[in-house]
């Protein structure tokens, strides 16, 4: 993997291979911070743009509020994104992910640490977008409903404490699966480690209620645009059997956008008749 | 808070105020790494020592294995600890915590990041050791038993993804409590965000089974030494009512060692008749 571009909140680029962060930064020693990730590509006029830019800045601010971090410097993150977009070679890499990161700063006191990274969408991710993903269902150990009512469990925040999400993806990969959907102890489908599940049940698109799971901006985009295309999208409790007997399913995320679920623990899923239309909606 | 001392695995000290870590280190952007924390003080011959040094290095290695990180450089962490101990002013600060940190390294590839930090035990922590702590019980959203059987949830690992633990402590502090004990959805007492619960029930010391919670080295120390003092220590499932009707309780941790629980959500607990003996055992 090539090293990402790095920008600071004053709008300057920095060499990512040079250390930026103190050893005692709470983002390191406690995973105590937040991030957000957005897709960057060429806009209609050829300039680089960040998809749903304001919505990502809004979500970063919501995540920071949940962790009781200072409000993110919105103008500063804007300058950092502009610097990255200006430096990016969209001819060589037409799509990239920009990550905004904010930590609580050094444990012994000091300002929060903030920066933005930009890396190309990998060939593997583009292949998953085109060809779909095999998934495995893994227990998440907690119910979304219960977590939603316990703010100290940080429901709905994109915190930097993602080691379990990464471990679940490794676990799946080692067993030959591309991705994961988490299941609650009560048998409800929740979300992927870095994605949101959408299921086609008889032409209706259904997605798990966002209790204790992350509010997906790609889903928000879909929900806003789908009715105009005559497609209903609704929150509904889903169990594995609903997925296995569905007319197709997808994982949504900001970078990969959409990946069809080709199989669930080895059982093949059909490609939904709505696949083309859903992609058309999300690509706008 | 004063800035900690920082040592690298080659045995040199470094200035902690200078950046050490890349912005794209997985320890930062994913909380993807492990740590361990040990108490440092003067040994019998006046030299600085790390309490249960080998046990902490062993647990760091177990945590790394659970996260499928490379095996920690044991000799290197030993050199780092020696450098910290040699540089520490034990006259000015008789007790300190040494933290060993290992991350997966830069996302785009490269070696793991490893270092050790040493900071004084704060006056507040020393006061808690002497005077005890008020606690509040907070839901953890998951059962230890269930998590224990799901390796992708990283049971038993001290990962760097501690944002929930930190949030629970903030939540408690804002409501006037010193610390937290987590409770499972089934109503079982689990552990503190950075400590282990021990309860005196009629002269027997009981602690929750270590399923899906962290194996405490201070507890291990107690379990090894208590029988010689005629005290039984056993794993047993405990509910809030068992704590509230107990003859006393403590939170154990490597730095604070032991803090008596003075109250649970406002209900006072007695000081256990075994308090002095337990401290004598743990202080050795």
UniProtKB/TrEMBL annotation, chains A, B:
Q: Which InterPro entries match?
A: Aminotrans_IV, Aminotransferase-like, BCAT-like_C, BCAT-like_N, Class-IV_PLP-Dep_Aminotrnsfr
Residue ranges the record marks as coiled coil? none
Any GO BP annotation: carboxylic acid biosynthetic process
GO cellular-component term (any): cytosol
Query: Which GO terms label this protein's molecular function in UniProt?
Result: catalytic activity
Superkingdom, taxonomy of origin: Bacteria
Q: Which family does it belong to?
A: Belongs to the class-IV pyridoxal-phosphate-dependent aminotransferase family.
Q: What is this protein called?
A: Aminotransferase class IV
Q: Mind giving the lineage of the organism this protein is from?
A: Bacteria, Bacillati, Actinomycetota, Actinomycetes, Micrococcales
């Amino acid at each position: 993997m090539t090293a990402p571009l790095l920008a600071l909140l004053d709008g300057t680029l920095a060499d990512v291979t040079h250390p930026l962060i103190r050893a005692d930064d709470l983002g390191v020693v406690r995973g105590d911070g937040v991030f957000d990730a957005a897709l960057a590509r060429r806009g209609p006029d050829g300039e680089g743009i960040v998809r749903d830019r304001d919505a990502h800045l809004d979500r970063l601010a919501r995540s920071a509020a949940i962790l009781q971090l200072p409000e993110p410097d919105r103008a500063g993150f804007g300058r950092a994104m502009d610097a990255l977009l200006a430096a990016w070679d969209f001819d060589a890499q037409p799509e990239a992910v920009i990550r905004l990161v904010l930590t609580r700063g050094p444990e012994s006191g000091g300002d929060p640490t903030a920066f933005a990274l930009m890396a190309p969408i990998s060939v593997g991710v583009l292949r998953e977008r085109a060809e779909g993903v095999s998934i495995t269902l893994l227990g998440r150990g907690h119910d979304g409903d219960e977590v939603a009512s316990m703010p100290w469990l940080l429901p709905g925040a994109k915190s930097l404490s993602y080691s379990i999400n990464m471990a679940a993806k490794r676990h799946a990969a080692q067993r030959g699966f591309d991705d994961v959907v988490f299941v609650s102890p009560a048998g409800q489908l929740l979300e992927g480690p870095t994605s949101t599940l959408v299921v086609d049940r008889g032409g209706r698109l259904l997605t798990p209620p966002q209790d204790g799971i992350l509010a997906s901006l790609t889903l928000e985009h879909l929900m806003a645009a789908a009715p105009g295309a005559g497609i209903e999208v609704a929150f509904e409790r889903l169990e594995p059997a609903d997925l296995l007997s569905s007319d197709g399913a997808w994982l949504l995320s900001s970078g990969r956008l959409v990946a069809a679920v080709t199989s669930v623990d080895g059982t093949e899923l059909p490609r939904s008749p709505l696949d083309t239309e859903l992609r058309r909606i999300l690509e706008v």
